[in-house]
Amino acid sequence: MFRPANLLLSLAILSYIIVIGGATYEHLAVVPQWTAAPPASLAMFQGTYGLQAQNFWIPIHPVTLILMGAALIAN
């Protein structure tokens, strides 16, 4: 039987999996680069073509928190 609470929980789980995937990628690919030789290696965050991690993290966090809260209340 379809219940909106199940849909909310599924969306919350999917959103959390996306957060875990992003964190795993960042820890495996990005962190070793910027910790290699600071302060010179920190240049990867500057300039026109610098890494803009906030474009991923700022939108996904509130969505995940809202979905987790809604799933918690609904279930």
Binned, the helix content reads 55-70%
Shape: elongated
Radius of gyration (Å): 17 Å
Overall average residue pLDDT: 93
Quaternary structure: single chain
Strand percentage: under 5%
Would you list the SSEs in sequence order as H and E?
Answer: HH
Largest sheet: number of strands, sense, barrel closure = none
Structural class, by secondary structure, is mainly alpha
Unreliable segments of 5+ consecutive residues: none
Distance between the termini: 15 Å
Q: Number of DSSP strands?
A: 0
What key attributes describe this structure?
75 residues; elongated
Can I get a quick summary?
The chain is mostly helical and 75 residues long.
Protein architecture, described:
With 75 residues, this protein is an all-alpha fold. The protein has a domain at 1-28 and 52-75. It has two helices and no strands. It has helices at residues 4-34, 54-74. α1 packs antiparallel against α2. It starts with a helix and ends with a helix.
Describe the secondary-structure layout.
Layout: H1 4-34, H2 54-74
